[in-house]
Amino acid sequence: ILAAIAGLLLIIFPEFWIRFIVTVLGLSAIAYGVYNLKYEKALFADTTYERTILIRSIVSIVIGVMVTIFPLTLAKAAWNAMRIILIIYLILSATAGFYAAALLKNTDIDRKRYFIENLILVGLAVVLIFLSDNLGVVIMRLVGVIGMIGGIALAVYEIISQKKQVITTDSASDSENEEATEAGSESAGEEE
């Protein structure tokens, strides 16, 4: 039911959800920058690696603050500008991340996680590219329709499953009662 409601909201208010996604990505960029400063920078004692992570973290925090605060105070043009800045940031951050992961090549540190993380950043940039005003509204409405249909289908499936379960449970109870009655009469016959 929640998926159907969320789908309906996506259909009715697609612009809101585009702005919501951009704002959430901005807040995520801030958290990502803080995380990198606290944990990733100390992972490998190499000046180039530490400098790369430091720059990446600071840029992440600054871009996150800009994407989160400026659109709240400025008009629609700010949303588009922040979306473009966020796309550029995600691509540059992924590039720096791939470089930092390459610096870890001769260490015992597993680099697969870092490659996956940077591929996700590139994927988010691609998604934001497609979330332009007109195309973004179409995509959000399409996702809304899919979510609504999926939510309704899940609700119907759940109702049908529960009816089958009640019928099966009732049948099982009847069978158990019959078996108990037969067992009771057999044991009564043995006692005589």
Quick take:
The chain is an all-alpha fold and 192 residues long. The chain has helices at 2-12, 14-40, 47-73, 76-103, 112-130, 133-191. The termini are far apart.
Describe the model.
The protein has helices spanning 2-12, 14-40, 47-73, 76-103, 112-130, 133-191. It is mainly alpha-helical and 192 residues long. α1 (2-12) packs antiparallel against α6. The radius of gyration is 28 Å and the shape is globular. The chain starts with a helix and ends with a helix. 21% of the residues are buried.
Any descriptors?
about 190 residues; globular; 6 helices; mainly alpha
Helix content: over 70%
Strand content: under 5%
Total count of helical runs of at least 4 residues: 6
Shape: globular
Radius of gyration over C-alpha positions, nearest whole angstrom? 28 Å
Average pLDDT = 76
List low-confidence stretches.
Answer: none
Order of helices and strands: HHHHHH
Largest sheet, in brief, is: none
* Cα separation of the termini: 60 Å
Structural class: mainly alpha
Number of strands: 0
